[in-house]
User: Fold this.
Amino acid sequence: RSPADGHPPSSAAMSLLNTDEWMRSVDVPVYAGNGEGAPRPRGVPQTLQFRNGIPFQTVTNRATAPPGPTAPWDKHDPRWGTNRPSTASNAPAAVPTRKPSWLAYDGVKLQWRGYFEDLETTKRTGLPRVRKCFITYHLEDGTVDVREPREVNSGIVQGPLLHRMPCDNANGERMSFRDISVGEPVTIFSRTYNVLGCDEFTRAFLAKEGVHVPPEIPFPHERDPEPPKGQFKSAPSVMPAAAGAPPRLPDATVGGGGGVSVRFNSEGVAVEVGTGGGVDDARGSTGVRPAPPSAIAGLKEAAGRQFLAYDRRVLRFFGTCEVPAGGDDARLVGSTRNFVVHYYLADDTVEVLEVMPGNAGREPYGKFLKRQKLPKATLNPGGGYRYGVGIRPASDETLRARRREPDGFYHWRDFRVGEDVVVFGLVLTLRDCDEHTKAWYAAECGLTDDDFPSMPPPAGPPPIPPRVVPSNVSGIGSEADSLNSVYRLVPKVPKKDVSFDEWLINQGQVMRFTGKLVDGPGKPPVPENEKARTFVVSFFLEDNTLAVFEPPVPNSGYPGGKYLERRPARKASGSNAYLRARDCRVGAVLEIKGTWMRLNAADDATLAIMEARPKEFPGSDARAVVTALTQAIARAGSPAAKELSRLCAVEDAKLGGGGAMVLNRAAFLNVMCELCAHAPGLGEFVDAQRLITLWRVLPKVSFDPTQTRLPAGVPREALGEDHALIADVFETLSVPFER
Assistant:
């Protein structure tokens, strides 16, 4: 067997043939990834190593290509450009000589105005109808779109005539902006458009491209003349009306005199209705006979003219209705229902909408009365109305009888503010109307604002007394938790009264103070043994909750621990206002768990939070505090400055006999408190929070006991305290300092 047969050679032949030659001689099928031109595996260098558990990247000695142009990923995403070799070749990059059209003319379009002839013929000129249009050419891709401006009540479909697409010119080539010229017709998809002009940008662009633009051409108004008096321009197919009749709402009488009017009956047949005498019809009604064709044409013309003149013009009235006794729901008797009445001038129809208040207890529906002609109501001798009882609809026979009457439907002349309108048995009192309705009546009837007196609103339902939330006297759980067990059999976790943004900003921030029990109004005196108790008051900014903890003291008689579980706390007993962060400051007295507690001090983190919010904590605004104290001492005059010097000298003598000219925190507070007691008018500007803010403003120095007269008399604990120079105190308060 030979290698050409596809069988492995014998051991003797293996010694004569090279293994590579044998492999090349075997026919291997060509598949994806195999054959000529297939990618060969390339070794990836290992650059990530760990030493002592710390990852680091090593630099290989492989030669890299010289830096070339920026790779595509480096251009679009800056994160890809870190330590990534360039894949570009060493050949210089080709610089484009010009930008492509889609980039150079992105969003740029040229616009021409013109007209085209429709297939229909107008009755006024006998020529094809002329319709205006706008031709837009988009330079970025060479597409064209044509649209027609919309007109109100035109009777034809207007808007986009040709959607944006590429078009061909008369030679069958792709249309360019040079194929559209002012004064010359252009054919697009077998429709010829007459170009009359272009906008200023198009004219400037064409002039820049070297294209001559002729002057503007006026629109041929002779092709679309003004309609006769009584017709409308937007409806050229309407039959001509009689000369001298302005477009007004049609009256009841359309024919000529004699008290004869033309109406449509319930079967849709036009009939003449006479007020005195006439011919009886087949149903036995007096004064009704079929109308002649001329009267029918006049009625149709009048209805069309009314629609074109008053379309989308609506009169709006606001009315109320007192629910009478004997209705479907006895609970609504005596209540007031609010309605909005719309009168459409285009076809004399009425629409009634009910304004449904919140929690009305009734199913809301779209319309109380859909748009239709509203028949007038006539009281029967025995009570009630002829066409029905209540708001139930009348029968067809009853409505047909009402339509045969000359004035059987409500007209806009029948609506007046202060009068009643009967809507199928429901009496609505019109109490007011909008400004457009007032202007309409002023123009048509000459009415003034005095003719529209707004009626006072009816007395509403009795006010609902506020719900009194009982106080949580059990002491178990929070008030919201206990109140939730009253509302639900299976209580749910109450929602916290804080927004997500406020919670996110203040997450993890806590204000901590030290507190003592003190005497206060309305509470029994605090025993002497309880006045020595110390508490840690924590206010959590993320949800405005308060927690009080008592550090345990051996042999004190009090176990310590939680004095108040974390919960929202009220400002006072029986108050609906809860404590907020602005209520917690050094020196504030809070009512906690039925006792008065004064906040004596705060940690540095709390003071930093308060200083970062000067608007919420004005006592921590360093600039405002220094300005107020400086002005108060300046108003007190030289006696205040001398008293400040004396108090500082007394406190300095207590520290090693004096000589160091420094004050610690306790000495500074003593000086300021004594100064406020002696200087008139200074105490109203100083409280505990402002004194701490002033102390934090002063620069701190290290204390050197060798500067004192008796270094051995300096206590050891004084060496670890913060001190401020007396000269800095005087400089901060703008007081002259004399050593």
Q: What stands out?
A: Confidence is low (pLDDT under 50) at residues 70-84, 234-262, 264-270, 273-288.
